[in-house]
Every structure is written in structure tokens, then in C-alpha cells.
Write a structure and sequence with these properties.
It contains 9 helices and 14 strands. By secondary structure, the protein is α/β, with parallel strands linked by helices. It has 2 domains: 4-91, Alpha-Beta Plaits; 136-295, 3-Layer(aba) Sandwich (Rossmann fold), CATH 3.40.50. Helix 1 packs antiparallel against helix 2 (54-70) and helix 4 packs parallel to helix 5 (168-176). It starts with a strand and ends with a strand.
Length: 299
């Protein structure tokens, strides 16, 4: 018997897109897509029925209305219905097109045939129920940051990807020339999707290790530290993780952190400073930001 999913459809003002996407992600939705309809946006997202009841979706609808009131924008119209898993898989994929990210990447849906000749790095992806399709500003900011950091990768560059979702960032790092990446996520479905995407991009498991878990799992996998840390998850989780980053770090380790709303950036910056990290750059896109960090030199 297949699993059922809530299909949540939101008709909204375009300026509400980022707050709605953030709210849906925080709620636990998967496979978010956007469609333009006249002067409005239609945003669709999916949540497993086994985890959420109709009352939970009603509460989500109220939160979306309250967010719009705070921003002094028209309230969105939210509708939801139950669909079967195979219908969910096909519904949101209909709206996902190849996406160019930065100067070097094009993220290509697995069910489309990529071009034979291109000067781009083709990152093929089927996220399943995991976060990370290349369309969200935080994912794009992270890929662009990796592009800069790995423009001239050193030999034997090792990356850690915490909260890897679909695996898009660690796969991107390997395509850019990193020698090895370790990716972890607490969600077993995300781990499954990331492993399938590793195979889709013809990356050997020895070069990209994907396990279920979080920082503690990484510490067991990595003996000598990593050269780069990538983390695109909720800001509250990043704040909890920052004090432990030093356990993974070498003297010259750098990091790319996103999933952070601009109004949350000061709390992140303060925590980084307290834990001996320097903010080398802060990139912003719409309501989101991405920290590029490095270890502060010891006195």
C-alpha cells in the first residue's frame, strides 16, 4: 500500500514567496515548487500524512496568514488535499525545469535528457522527498560559494556536508574538484535520495560517503579533519552546531553556511565570533543569506 501525502497549494502575492518557502520548510514540507499565475504565484508543497493531520495543515494556513499580516501584504489562499505517493512524485516534477546556478552549474532533473555539448557542469538530480533542487536561494548561494572556494581546489580537498538533503552540495563539490566528501543527514529518506543522486552523477561511493546521522557520525568518519564544511539547514540548528565545528576543522578550514534568514544573521555572526571563526563574506539573496567563514588565526 502506498503512502499518502498532503498536497498543499498556496495562491499568494509574489513578495510572500520567501516567507512562505521558509515557513513550509520549517513545517517539514518536501518537494516545493512554484508556478506564476497572472500577477500571483502558486506554491505547492507536500507533507506526509503519517506525520501531519488536517488540523496541523490548518495551523500552517493560519501561520501563513499571520506572516502576510506582519509584512502588510494580502493574505494567501491555502488549500490542501490527500494524494497517493506516486501522484505526489509526478505532481511537483511537472513544474521543475533545468536551473543554471552560478557560472558553472546547471542542475538537471533526472527524468530529462541533458545536453550532449555544454560548458556547464551538469548536476543531475532527483531529490525524492529531500530538500535541495537548486531552485531555492539558499541552495544557489551555497553552490556559488563552493564554486568560488573550489575554483582552484587543492590536492586531496575533503568536504563535510551536514544536513545534506538530496546531496546536491556534496555532489557539486565533487564535480568542482574536491577529492572526497562526507555527507550526513538525520532523515533516512534524504540519505536514500542522496545515494541515488550519487549514482546518477557517476560518483564512486569512496569519493562521496553518505551516512545517516549528524555531526557525531561525521566525527567517526573523519580522522584528520576536513578542509571545508557546508551546512544548509535551519539557523537554530546551525547555532547549536557551531561550537562543535572546531572538532572537524584543520587550521585553514573554511565553511559555507546557509538556510539563514537575514534577520537571523546577527545571532549566527555572534556565535561564530565566540567560537573562533571569522566571517570572510556574507552573501544575500532576497530574504536569505549565506556565510563564508574561516578559522581565526591563533594568537
Amino acid at each position: 500500500m502506498s503512502n499518502s501525502w498532503w498536497e498543499i497549494t498556496i495562491l499568494c502575492h509574489p513578495h510572500l514567496e520567501e516567507s512562505i518557502t521558509w515557513r513550509l520548510d520549517k513545517f517539514g514540507c518536501s518537494g516545493t515548487s512554484r508556478e506564476i499565475k497572472g500577477k500571483s504565484y502558486i506554491i505547492q508543497a507536500y507533507a506526509p500524512q503519517i506525520q501531519y493531520q488536517s488540523l496541523d495543515i490548518s495551523a500552517l494556513s493560519l501561520w501563513l496568514q499571520q506572516d502576510a499580516l506582519v509584512l502588510n501584504l494580502p493574505q494567501p489562499l491555502t488549500r490542501w488535499k490527500l494524494i497517493e505517493e506516486e501522484d505526489w512524485a509526478s505532481s511537483w516534477k511537472e513544474h521543475w525545469e533545468p536551473t543554471e546556478v552560478g557560472d558553472r552549474f546547471i542542475v538537471y532533473p533526472a527524468w530529462l535528457t541533458p545536453p550532449e555539448e555544454t560548458d556547464k557542469l551538469i548536476l543531475r538530480l532527483d531529490p525524492g522527498v529531500a530538500f535541495g533542487t537548486g531552485t531555492h536561494p539558499t541552495t544557489q548561494l551555497c553552490l556559488e560559494s563552493l564554486e568560488m572556494r573550489l575554483s582552484k581546489p587543492k590536492e586531496n580537498t575533503v568536504i563535510a556536508d551536514i544536513g545534506s538533503g538530496s546531496g546536491i552540495l556534496s555532489i557539486g563539490a565533487i564535480l568542482l574538484g574536491a577529492s572526497k566528501a562526507y555527507a550526513v543527514d538525520i532523515d533516512p529518506l534524504a540519505v536514500k535520495a542522496a545515494r541515488e543522486n550519487r549514482h546518477l552523477n557517476q560518483i564512486h561511493p569512496d569519493h562521496l560517503v553518505i551516512n545517516q546521522g549528524s555531526l557525531s557520525e561525521l566525527l567517526e568518519l573523519v580522522n584528520d579533519g576536513v578542509d571545508g564544511i557546508v551546512c544548509n539547514i535551519l539557523a537554530e540548528v546551525i547555532i547549536d552546531l557551531i561550537p562543535h565545528f572546531s572538532k572537524l576543522a584543520k587550521p585553514n578550514t573554511w565553511g559555507v553556511l546557509s538556510g539563514i534568514l537575514i534577520e537571523q544573521s546577527q545571532a549566527i555572526a555572534d556565535t561564530l565570533e565566540q567560537e573562533g571563526w571569522i566571517v570572510a563574506a556574507l552573501w544575500k539573496r532576497k530574504q536569505w543569506c549565506c556565510f563564508q567563514i574561516r578559522k581565526a588565526p591563533k594568537d
